[in-house]
């Protein structure tokens, strides 16, 4: 999500403060030809022959009924301006002495803007006798046909080949089913039971210091660091209680009293393993791993606190620039985080927060922005800095109340793509990451509304919990049993892959995304953003070659599961409950997406919303207590093909299989029919 003012934002390189990004894949608007014929079914056309560049790209659905009403629906593409379009009935111009309806107003065709979702309707004997309807674009070079529908069957008065489509799409009998609704058949179906959770206890870190025993630098080199808890220099040796906790006691050669961050850095240089005893260690600079085969660990996990303060880059956090490193059991506070620019790194049981020491108490307001602003783009930041990275893992780590991403994996773009591969996330938590837009103020509620100044804000308005794919190539990324809640934008976030510069232009090839999996993950209450342009705000936002299994979404501000520009991705045994817009959203040039044995329930708008998508396979999908949103003037439980009246993306679903089991008493399904689809819509 790098660059600025491109519609879709995100956290980009560490040197880019605005961090705007591009997920709005503006693919070529596809023009699709559809002819439905057979029996008394006659025809519908969404023509897509290549047009000259000056001709608007538009899809038009044409239908007629036996009462002599011809209707043309603008179904996607660009708006047609007054004087740019003409309608012919059997080579005769649309009679201007006849009325037609555009947004419920009677206006001649040559004076009305015709935009997505609006219809032109002609009533009368002229329509009864029509065997052909043609829409042409009238430009400086003359008239060019946009859409032409010919009769392919016989029918009384010539209307026959239109009538079945009209009934199917527009609702010939509104007293039977509302306009635009596909009625549900009466079959019954049994929903498959969910698969049980995996046995996570068998998943262990892959990077183990016991494998390093042959390294001369590592063998028998352990240092212990203690802190007195104050600055009194009279503490030349640790208290007896600390000494007694170390098996065999400690002796002067490997026992060091902490004075400042250099104590840690010196011993990391001189020893293979540095063990920190219980206490608070105030660090006034960075901790650096410049050599391989090193461990920094708490003797008792969770009892070592490192408040850090470093507002500038290269200051106030842990930086790992050498391979074969383990960091374990620490609590990092303030600006403290972990930046990884090398391979073979394991982070285990590390907790990070932008709060100051002691602020994570039970009675503080988590919505109040913390005072510290991280110098890096993620509290756990994996940065392919001019080289590919691999074999990086996080076990039992937590990012809580952070002014930047909990996790961010990325690269700076220098005309060379780099990969981050074979990464593993197990039992990790990202909670309350993000508090607004850099340089702005934000309101939060703590009994009453208060305004917080800019210096307390996030690095970006696009902060997420787990932002795992930005400008780098992502290969073999596996996320197990992780949890995201109350993050500013998405809980789990994977960009569609565009590399755009600040001017909105392409600056590199689309990123690779290969074999990404999320298993047994949970995403709750994400999308706290108050930014006016916010739109991710979802439990899971993803794109290509990604599989989610047994994942849960609850009460997210936009969608539970959101696919944009996606390819070859699937959801298996996933459930959304109560996300405010849509349970499952698949849009903007997606293809080969599978939603298998999933549930959407208690959504105030849509269970399934998809448009501009091909080969969508929806199997054993169940929607429960979905109250429905407003679309085409009616309430819907699921919607296929409509997208906010946005001509760039409001294109049909094609070549797809849709199997939905819905509550009997819930609203039904709007479908802007595309070609090659099979529907199996069932009441529960």
Automatic annotation (TrEMBL):
<feature type="domain" description="Right handed beta helix">
    <location>
        <begin position="513"/>
        <end position="598"/>
    </location>
</feature>
<dbReference type="Pfam" id="PF13229">
    <property type="entry name" value="Beta_helix"/>
</dbReference>
<dbReference type="InterPro" id="IPR012334">
    <property type="entry name" value="Pectin_lyas_fold"/>
</dbReference>
<feature type="transmembrane region" description="Helical">
    <location>
        <begin position="21"/>
        <end position="47"/>
    </location>
</feature>
<keyword id="KW-1133">Transmembrane helix</keyword>
<dbReference type="InterPro" id="IPR006626">
    <property type="entry name" value="PbH1"/>
</dbReference>
<dbReference type="InterPro" id="IPR039448">
    <property type="entry name" value="Beta_helix"/>
</dbReference>
<keyword id="KW-0812">Transmembrane</keyword>
<protein>
    <recommendedName>
        <fullName>Archaeal Type IV pilin N-terminal domain-containing protein</fullName>
    </recommendedName>
</protein>
<dbReference type="Pfam" id="PF07790">
    <property type="entry name" value="Pilin_N"/>
</dbReference>
<dbReference type="InterPro" id="IPR012859">
    <property type="entry name" value="Pilin_N_archaeal"/>
</dbReference>
<dbReference type="InterPro" id="IPR011050">
    <property type="entry name" value="Pectin_lyase_fold/virulence"/>
</dbReference>
<feature type="domain" description="Archaeal Type IV pilin N-terminal">
    <location>
        <begin position="21"/>
        <end position="91"/>
    </location>
</feature>
<keyword id="KW-0472">Membrane</keyword>
